[in-house]
Amino acid sequence: MATALIWLRRDLRLADNPAMIAASQHRHCIPVYVHNPADEGDWAPGAASRWWLHHSLKALSASLDKAGSRLIIRSTHDTLDCLRAIISETGAEALYWNRVYEPALIKRDQTIKLALREDGLAVHSLNAALLREPWEVTRRDGGHYRAFTPFWRALSAMPPIAPEPAPELPAPPPAWPKGQPVESLGLLPGIPWDRHFHDQWRPGEAGANAALETFLESALQGYDDARDRPGQAGTSRLSPHLHWGEISPRQIRAAVTRQQQETVLPDHDVESFLSEVGWREFAHHLLYHFPHMPQDPLDARFRHFPWAADTADALRAWERGRTGIPIVDAGMRELWAIGWMHNRVRMIVGSLLTKNLRIPWQTGEAWFWDTLVDADLASNSMGWQWIQGCGADAAPYFRIFNPVRQGERFDPEGHYVRRWVPELRALPDKYLHSPWSAPEQILREAGVRLGDTYPRPLVDLATSRKDALAAYQDIRS
């Protein structure tokens, strides 16, 4: 066949891109990105994700130009009509895309595939986002998993699929269809709240590969311990690259395997990191089999949980990093500044919100959705249900993180808190994670005035813990 379209979505890369590899076998291959946030229903990309998407599309466009191709961008309110128009303009006889697994997008893709096949087009969808499809990893009885450990054991036992290099793209078509510039999509913020993003992130395939290389060389060894310490550069920070498909989990697993073969690495570091890739796979497995997961608790008892009333002020303090609990405030300020938060701290701030403050987990989920550059529907909703204790393989509800103990254990020298809560920088380590416990003279010497330069705790941790456990007893009975 002469001309094929590749419809790019969450696969913004050239290497290990099955749809692009297949489309490149045709005489002409036209890469297309169709922008229609309405397709995603209640979960259109948030502000931080839109920032990332803008720069990722710019990077992909440059890569395609260098390869002798071109990215055709169009904005529409009807994706099917838009694709039909491009098909008509180009005479394309085939369309390829890589699957996405959000419920609204699965429904959209099924509708489009059926309609275009009825039009006589050859339509093919492939897997570029996961090690294995959600329906491929099954229990012996054919059912799906609800617990991570047996899921990961089953997935790890399956033969790995080797990643493919970037294809050699065919000659350009006689004429390119019209497109529009990335800037016309209006993805960037109107006010410069993203000013620190540029120092932290390099969206695009090249940035993803550089981040992976840096992690393999400097942080994979010792990962099992360092990953829990927010004051250290101990994690890969590959999550936003994975979400937008600038790198694939197959590429990551293959690179880790090569690194282990070439250097002496402790098995527990490698296994610990790969299991984090596995948690992402498990999240997509759950979302595929439980499409209501973003809004409804998998444990139905929690539909009747007695949430606190009149929480608007508490929620605003949490969002702004003004709770008076240092490691929580550090995490929320990190999130606002760079669009990302260390995973250990995500659990801590989530526990405070849902258990000590008894604010619904869906509220935290929505805030993260808008402010995280790695906002991913599967991982975000699974994570919040895990924190609340209402999801699959979730932490027991009675496991309530004590943010003071967590800070003392995982940020013992205070590097993380001092970076993001500078008004406490002069406090001794002993009092840094609980400034309300410091003698008045110590506070004066550190320039800290509780209730003035830094807020008093929003909630009493011990009392609110008892109230949370009592609320849990209500739904158990």
Automatic annotation (TrEMBL):
Pfam families, sorted: DNA_photolyase (PF00875), FAD_binding_7 (PF03441)
Keywords of this entry: Chromophore, FAD, Flavoprotein, Lyase
EC number: 4.1.99.3
Cofactor remark from the record: Binds 1 FAD per subunit.
GO molecular function: deoxyribodipyrimidine photo-lyase activity; DNA binding; FAD binding
Site (Electron transfer via tryptophanyl radical): 307, 361, 384
Gene Ontology BP annotations: photoreactive repair; response to light stimulus
Cofactor(s) recorded in Swiss-Prot or TrEMBL: (6R)-5,10-methylene-5,6,7,8-tetrahydrofolate; FAD
Domain Photolyase/cryptochrome alpha/beta: 2-131
Highest rank taxon of the organism: Bacteria
Record's keyword annotation contains ATP-binding: no
Reaction equation(s) it catalyzes: cyclobutadipyrimidine (in DNA) = 2 pyrimidine residues (in DNA)
Position of the signal peptide: none
InterPro entries membership: Crypto/Photolyase_FAD-like_sf (IPR036134), Crypto/Photolyase_N_sf (IPR036155), Cryptochr/Photolyase_FAD-bd (IPR005101), Cryptochrome/DNA_photolyase_1 (IPR002081), DNA_photolyase_1_CS_C (IPR018394), DNA_photolyase_N (IPR006050), Rossmann-like_a/b/a_fold (IPR014729)
Binding site for FAD: 223, 235-239, 273, 374-376
Role this protein plays: Involved in repair of UV radiation-induced DNA damage. Catalyzes the light-dependent monomerization (300-600 nm) of cyclobutyl pyrimidine dimers (in cis-syn configuration), which are formed between adjacent bases on the same DNA strand upon exposure to ultraviolet radiation.
Family: Belongs to the DNA photolyase family.
Protein name per Swiss-Prot or TrEMBL: Deoxyribodipyrimidine photo-lyase
